[in-house]
Write a structure and sequence with these properties.
The complex is a heterodimer. By secondary structure, chain A is of the alpha+beta class. Chain A is 43% helix and 13% strand. The chains are: A alpha+beta, B alpha+beta.
Chain lengths: 397, 378
């Protein structure tokens, strides 16, 4: 215990002494440090903070030193995390490599693969993207058809991947491909790694309704991938992908934590943007009702998360309840975004930067971008399937 | 505030579940209804509940109670809601005891709370005066006449109105002036001269009455709380009622969800179990999610009572969600059962009817959201 106390003290002292002041403020969407060959740091402080943390191995604190980490125990890593949170330190490095591929390689990779890829991830030298979805395989991901032909010492890839996030900025991709059409559709899938510079790859950014283009279409045309770049067993890529999904959720939660706290609550917007009658009530009775309804539900969802935790501690938790969170949380979130833009009126529908405040622009942007919440990571409809099977035990369709 | 039951509370919940499933199944409700029972509850069941010490659960230990708090009372009501087990428990404990605990003077507490705890005294709250729940526009009037209050006016839809041993009556004693709101709560013996009690048959087969007061004299010492200034106390009592009623409602919602899911797994049409149809699966899954978030709001509100927190917002949260979720689930229970859901034999009707009355009692969702908005300054 004294060792941990000492570790906490040393960690906190080091962070205090080394983390630049500007790296202790919440970061906006475009200030994340993703690393990679094509990356430009958003500021000198971000670069300085990144370099210092890489040197400590604290970009991937729990990975072994030979993999570019610091070899911390889980207790030590928790302390580091807590101290960083306490001091408001930004994550020095984020992204798919660190949070998704890394943990998957640690579990399924060969020793050679770990030594080759993990240090480059931890040092931010290589930026990774994910090649899962295809034009015909979204919610039904296991139906994917991107073909990998066995050519002796390598696979020959042909097909198309969609929703490759930052595919144009990434150096390498982890990808699900079909190596067999026999048996259940989940069983012919293989998890492959390859360099985005490999001949035959074309990446095309896809502009979204927000005006941004974070996602790309990736075309694979006779792409050669050496066989030693398979992670896990051939035909067992689905298990690797499922393990990775768990890490994706952790990643989303981590990103959320680092985002700036909203400046105004929903009712602040209503009070600031809408007319109030002589009794201090919102004149628009329908908005008033929707606002009350949203606040009541939002609170109940938060309370349900707390209740699940407390019941878990007391050994009285009904596991079936865990199936509702993604569905009910994202549905309420998108409802909230719609409500806020309705409250802002035309100020919540502006496109230019001159006539609308930064906050108004953000809210308009969130209304559009958060529509992805009820789709990505298992759409609401898929979640309802999960609830009806796992929580209610209803039969297969 | 705790959101999980502790070990003693879990034991109470499990005991209540077993006892009520065995001793107060929905068939008991059916028998009472078919027998046109005036009380609307089984005296035998109530006596057993008393033997188990239930009226004492939420009474402080210094007054002969068991000190389980309202989380304990809520756990019992939740289980009672599952089988629609009726008894004087809700009105006596959630409304009556709350009035005495928070408004009673030391003499009233000493004399009344031990009697509530031992089951000797049942109470009802005579408050409503119209078809809709209203909190403060009280017209039933009382004027001071020496050491007496003289009451004139009418109360409507008083739950347990012709059963209860004593009534807690909300009255207008002055117009709002000098910073006082003019509301007074009074403990009234229903056998007092000038009181006329008329039973009203309602769809849930429980006991309700319209009560008329004509020059009814009640000693001033029966005032509970501050004379001419009990608006806050009244709100607090009503919030206790809203929160505890929500616990009962969610028990009913749980029973209806379980019954409906069972039916979806059993009934076959078009060559398969109807529970294999996604149109029904998604609706059932949504019912489950709605029920779970409502449960959290209700336990939070029960916990707020026990932790002596402000109850206004937690009560609005709990009952508006309980209202909406109980209605959703009972409506869907009928629809998913199809025609058979409309037969009296299926029991669903009992819940549908009880749900309707529960929603109207102590505030529907429109009322509660309006209050929530006002409390939050919009």
């Amino acid at each position: 215990m004294t060792n941990l106390t000492q570790f906490r003290k040393e960690t906190s002292d080091w962070l205090e002494a080394n983390c630049p002041a500007s790296m202790r403020k919440p970061q906006s969407r475009d200030e994340g440090v993703y690393g990679g060959k094509k990356f430009t740091f958003p500021s000198d402080d971000a670069k300085l903070w990144f370099d210092l943390m890489v040197e400590k191995g604290w970009t991937a604190p729990q990975w072994a030193k030979e993999y570019g980490g610091a070899g911390l125990t889980s207790d030590e890593a928790k302390i580091l995390n807590k101290e960083m949170e306490r001091l408001g330190c930004r994550k020095p490095l984020i992204g798919h490599g660190l949070w998704m591929l890394g943990p998957a390689l640690l579990e399924y990779g060969t020793e050679e693969q770990k030594r080759e890829h993990l240090p480059k991830i931890a040092r931010g030298e290589i930026r990774w993207c994910q090649g899962y979805s295809e034009p015909g395989s979204g919610s039904d991901l296991a139906s994917l058809r991107c073909k990998a032909e066995d050519k002796g010492d390598h696979y020959l890839l042909n097909g198309q991947k969609s929703w490759t996030s930052d595919g144009d900025k990434a150096d390498w991709i982890f990808c699900l491909v079909r190596t067999s059409d026999e048996g259940p559709k989940q069983e012919g899938i293989t998890f492959l790694l390859f360099d985005m510079e490999t001949p035959g790859i074309t990446v095309r950014p896809v502009p979204l309704i927000t005006g941004e283009a974070h996602f790309c279409d990736t075309f694979l045309d006779n792409v050669k991938v050496p066989k030693d770049q398979v992670v896990g067993e051939v035909g067992k890529g689905w298990s690797v992908a499922k393990a990775l999904l768990v890490h994706e959720r952790t990643m989303m939660a981590d990103i959320e934590k680092n985002m700036p706290k909203p400046k105004y609550s929903v009712d602040d917007y209503a009070k600031n943007y809408l007319s109030i009658d002589e009794n201090g009530r919102l004149q628009d009775g329908l908005i008033r009702d929707r606002l009350a309804q949203h606040m009541i539900r939002d609170e109940a969802i938060k309370l349900t998360q707390k209740r699940a935790f407390e019941e878990g501690m007391a050994g009285d938790f009904d596991m079936r309840v865990a199936t509702i969170f993604k569905y009910i949380g994202t549905e309420e979130k998108t409802n909230k975004d719609t409500l806020i833009t309705d409250i802002l009126g035309m100020a919540g529908a502006g496109w230019d930067k001159e006539n609308f405040s930064a906050d108004e622009q953000t809210k308009t942007h969130e209304w559009m971008s958060n529509k992805a919440l009820t789709i990505a990571g298992g759409s609401s409809e898929v979640q309802l399937n999960v609830i009806s099977k796992r929580a209610l035990g209803l039969p297969e369709i | 505030m705790p959101l999980a039951l502790n070990e003693e509370q879990r034991m109470l919940r499990d005991t209540a579940h077993e006892f009520l499933q065995n001793n107060a199944p929905i068939d008991l409700m059916r028998q009472l209804r078919d027998g046109k029972d005036k009380k609307g509850y089984s005296e035998d069941l109530w006596q057993k509940m008393i033997e188990m010490g239930w009226p004492a659960v939420a009474i402080p230990e210094e007054f002969g109670g068991l000190g389980f708090g309202f989380i304990g009372a809520g756990a019992i009501l939740h289980e009672a809601g599952k089988t629609l087990a009726n008894s004087p428990f809700f009105n006596t404990v959630a409304l009556g005891a709350a009035a005495i605990i928070h408004g009673g003077n030391p003499d009233q507490q000493q004399s009344l709370l031990p009697k509530i705890a031992s089951g000797e005294l049942t109470l009802a709250l005579a408050h409503e005066e119209s078809n809709h729940h209203r909190t403060h526009n009280i017209e039933c009037q009382a004027i001071i006449d020496g050491d007496q209050l003289k009451i004139n006016g009418n109360k409507k839809f008083v739950a347990e109105g012709s059963n209860a041993d004593m009534l807690v009556v909300s009255l207008r004693t002055t117009e709002p002036t000098n910073g006082k709101n003019g509301i007074t709560l009074l403990l009234v013996d229903p056998s007092t001269m000038g009181i006329n009690i008329n039973e009203v048959n309602m769809i849930d087969s429980r006991n309700y009455a319209h009560i008329d007061f004509s020059d009814v004299n009640v000693p001033l010492k029966n005032v509970i709380g501050n004379i001419h200034d009990s608006k806050t106390l009244l709100d607090k009592i009503l919030d206790h009622g809203r929160i505890c009623l929500s616990a009962e409602m969610l028990g009913g919602a749980q029973a209806m969800l379980d019954k409906t899911v069972e039916y979806l797994k059993d009934r076959e049409q078009f060559g398969r179990k109807i529970g294999a149809f996604q149109a029904l699966q998604h609706r059932a899954a949504n019912m489950f999610a709605e029920l779970e978030i409502a449960k959290s709001a209700v336990i939070n509100a029960l916990s707020a009572i026990d932790e002596n927190q402000d109850l206004a917002i937690p009560a609005c949260n709990a009952k508006s969600l309980a209202n909406d979720c109980y209605r959703l689930i009972t409506d869907e229970a009928v629809q998913m059962h199809g025609g058979i859901g409309l037969t009296d034999e299926m029991d669903i009707g009992f819940y549908l009817k009880r749900c309707r009355i529960s929603i109207q009692s102590l505030g529907d969702s429109g009322f509660l959201k309006d209050r929530f908005a006002t409390l939050n300054g919009f």
